[in-house]
Each structure stands twice: as structure tokens, then as C-alpha cells.
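[Automated response] Your request has been received and processed.

Submitted sequence:
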Amino acid sequence: MSELRIAYLINQYPKVSHSFIRREILALERQGLVINRFALRGWEGDLVDAEDFVERERTRYILQRGVLGLLRSVLEIKLSSPLRYIKALALAFRMSRRADRPLPYHLIYLAEACRLASWLKRDGATHLHAHFGTNSAEVAMLASELSGVPYSLMIHGSEEFDKAEFIGLPEKLRRATFVAAITSFCRSQLYRSLPYAHWDKVQIVHCGLEPAFYNNVDLTLPQRPRFICVGRLCEQKGQQILIEAASILARKGMAFELVLAGDGEMRADVEALIAQCNLESHVRITGWISSDQVKQEILDSRAMVMASFAEGLPVVIMEAMSLQRPILSTWIAGVPELVIDGENGWLYPPGSVEELALAMERCLNTSDEELSKMGRLARARVLDRHDIDHEAGKLHALFQQAAQEQDGRSGAAQW
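Generated structure:
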């Protein structure tokens, strides 16, 4: 079997919320794989982590040279591989049917795929791996058609499941050599887009944590009654529900603090609700902060609280559990696979202000001894299921299996 040279494709990389992809890539490199990083965009924007600056220098950006660069790549592919180009063009047309975006977008994806395919061939890539099932997955599929390099996908949800048919998810999954799902729930949703005969290509590979994050840290539970919520301020995270629940606690005269770590398009709306509920003395918004700052905010809190309506499995939940902090979360998607109600946290129905307020009140009334015990159980569970080197090893094995199958097909074709 030839040396594995894996190309990673991400829509935007590096990105503040995509540190789990960086950890995965670095873990694979520790296992001896050669990883080339590609992104559609991402060379602009605010970065706060030093490691992300290093990753940006190691990443090639498909859109960085603009339209002329894409057109040159299209011409190169048309001249060097006309049959493959015609097949990819037909596939792009097929993907535009009943899609959430019209044909011109899919022709742009094809142009992006031409540039990626050229780079794959020049690098001698043996496999292409894409995170998420949206436009980056279509570019990967088209680049595979153009280059002959097989591809795989890692699906997180929930965006892919909200509009599976309209982003052509079934076609992307069917053509992939394998599909990694981050949770059992995620896998079940992918089954809905695949015939039963293809279910075995969907394998669970968790996002992972590095020991450097959670080891050699003072895990002492702080005395201040503080909750931490980490996430983009957007509609699916449900921060308004959280503010309404906090208002119930305040009206009861309970002492508490709530830190919203993050920023986003709904910050003004959240700030307005905080003011309307007279919670300025209880609630603080940090804005974008580095991963080290997020870690410190978690350590300065007694528990993490999430009010999300839609998720895959938030990495910040894993991080908080590794730091011995119980979790309060809605019982959605893959969260109940990690958070056990009454054991290492509290689960409640999404959208219920009253149930969320009750969970927060229960947490505030829990003794230090019991809360510390819940935190220890949380840490044990997440470390058992989300070690980055172990999960990267599972992905490595899938890459090897895909390469062996590809070699077998090539050998059969030659015979």
C-alpha cells in the first residue's frame, strides 16, 4: 500500500469555533500521516489563538486568488482531463436540481473543485477528507470526480439534517468511501439519507480532547455561584431562553452570575433582553475570546449551561466536563450520549424556560460535595469517550482501509 497523503478540506479554516479540527489534524500528524490543509476561505477574520496563526500559514485557500485563478484551473482541467470535466459538470448540474441554491452556485463549486483537483494531483494526495456536509462536501465530491482521488466526509449536524435533500446530502454520502459521524445520533440521521446497503460505511468518530487541555489544572470548585455558557450568539443557541430563565431566578432573589462567552449576530438582541429583564448585574458577555480565556472562564464557574435548540455535540461541553464541571443542557442530538441527567449534570426539554430555570436552581442548591462528585463523574465519562489520539486512530484506520480498497479496485481494473 502506498504512503497515505491526506488532504483536508474545510469551508473556513482556521476558525475560532473549529479548534477540534485543528486537534484532529495534529493528532493524525503525530501518528505519521502527511496532512495537507485546504480551505475555501478563512485567510481573513479575527484569530485569537497562536496555534490558529500557525495553521493559517500551513493552509492553502482556494478563493484567495479570486476569479482569474479559478478560471485558469478550470481551463487546465478541461484541457488535461476533458472526460472527467464533462462528468463533473454533469454532476454539478444534477446537484443543482431541487437545491437550496441555484445552478450558478454549483458551477462556482465546480470551479473551486478544479483548483483543488489540480493541487491534489500535484501533491500526490491519496485521499481527500472534508468536514461538514454543506458546500465544502460538494467541492470535495466534484474534486474527487475530477482527480480520481477518493473522498470521505465527517458530519457533525445539525445544519446538514435541517435540509439534507436540498444540499444533496444523499448523493454526497453515497459517493464517499466512508462517512464519519461524531455521535450515534448523528449516525442515525445519516441513515435517513442512505439506503440500508450503504449504512456500514457510516462510522462513529468522536471529536477529541488533548490531555494538555485538562491536565495540570487546578480543578477546585469556585465558591461564586457562576454559570458559564459558551457559544455563538445566534438563534440556534437559545440564549434568550437562558436570559428568561435567569430572570426567574433573579425574581426569586437567588444569588448567581451568568457569563456568556462568545459573540455573534444576535448580540444586540441578547443585550436588549438583558437590559429589559434588569439583569445587568447578573449577566456578562465576553465577546470573542481565546481558547485559553474560555478555559479560564469555565474554571471560574461552577457549571456550564446550554439552552441550544440544535447542535451536534458541542466541544465546549466536552471541555467543561474534562475540567470537572457539571453540565446543564437541553436533551437534544448527541448531548444525552455524554451528559447523564442527575449523574454528571441536568437535562431539560429545549425551549422550556421553566425547566431550565428549575435546573439552574437545583444546581445552585447543590452542595459543594455533591457538585464536585458530579464533576468527577463528568470528567471520567468524557475522558473515556473523547481522547483525541484514540479517535484520530479510528480515523487513521478508516483512511488505511479506504486506501486498501482503492488499491484492490486498481489491481482488479489492471487485471
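Summary generated for your ticket: The domain at 211-385 is CATH 3.40.50.2000 (Rossmann fold). The radius of gyration is 23 Å.
If you did not submit this request, please reply to this message.
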